[in-house]
Each structure stands twice: as structure tokens, then as C-alpha cells.
Amino acid sequence: MRKLPSSRGFTLVEVLIALLVLAIVITTSLAVFVDRTRRLQEATETILAYQALSNEAEVRRRIAYQSLDTAPSFFVTDKTVLEPLQPYTTYVTVADVQTDVKNVTMLVRWRGGKRIARLAILRVNTGGTNLW
After folding, report:
1. How far apart are CA 45 and CA 33, in angstroms?
2. Backbone angles phi, psi at 84, to 5 degrees
């Protein structure tokens, strides 16, 4: 009686399972990488929007209290920092909260209005100059 040669290597089932595991690992890694890239993009855009809001808040803080209602309803500062967010829109609203208190709200919208950054400051009529 003749002995059968011992088989070497992997069976087809073992190879298919190994390929399945490899495909799951690669797919998961790719999904994590894509999500990380998306979150990094959103964070960068948010930083740019809040930088522009901060710049505008500084300008609105220096406008004389009596002139707040007649100030433009768009950003008066340089909006170059917002260029990567194109197309975007900027708004500024002034609302009376109490006597001698106004709420100045600045807003940046981008990605078709899906992303919004908002900053509000309270201005109080202290009777002094526009610096304090």
C-alpha cells in the first residue's frame, strides 16, 4: 500500500477566511482615515470662522454705542481668512436687550448654511468713549 504524500499549504477555505479578515481590516482602516480627514477639515473651517468672528467683534466693540444700530449688517473687517469657506455669508444683527444694553450677534454661514459659527457680545452704554 502506497502512502499519500502529505499535503502542504492552506486549504481554499482558510485562504478565503484570511482574505475576508484582511478586507475587513483594510475597510475599517480606510473608514477611520476618511472620517479623520473629514473631522480635520471641519475643525480647520471652524477655526477660520471663529477667527473672522473675533476680528469682527473687536471692530464692533470699538464702534460708538450710539452708532451700533446704523453700522453695516455685514462684516466690515477683512474677510480673506474666510476664503477657504467659499461660498459663505456673514451677518451682523444688533438688538436692544434693555435700556442702554445692546446684543451684537455676528454670524458666519458656509456649506450652504449647514455650518454656522456665531459670536455675540453685549454692549453697554457707559456714557464714556467707544473704547470702554
Report:
1. 18
2. -65, -15
Q: What is the pLDDT of residues 12-47, one digit of tens each?
A: 999 999 999 999 999 999 999 999 999 999 999 999
What is the C-alpha separation between 72 and 89, in angstroms, rounded?
14
Distance CA 61, CA 92 (A): 13
**C-alpha–C-alpha distance, residues 80 and 116, integer Å:** 18
Question: Containing H/E element for 38?
Answer: helix 12-62
Amino acid at 10: F
pTM: 0.77
**What does the alpha-carbon distance between residue 27 and residue 125 come to, in Å, rounded to a whole number?**
59
Instruction: Provide the residue ranges of all domains of the chain, joining segments of one domain with +.
Output: 12-124
3-34 exposure pattern, b = at least 16 Cβ within 10 A, e = fewer? eeeeeeeeeeeeeeeeeeeeeeeeeeeeeeee
The owner of cell 476680528 is 55
Whether the link from the prior residue into 87 is cis, omega within 30° of 0, is yes
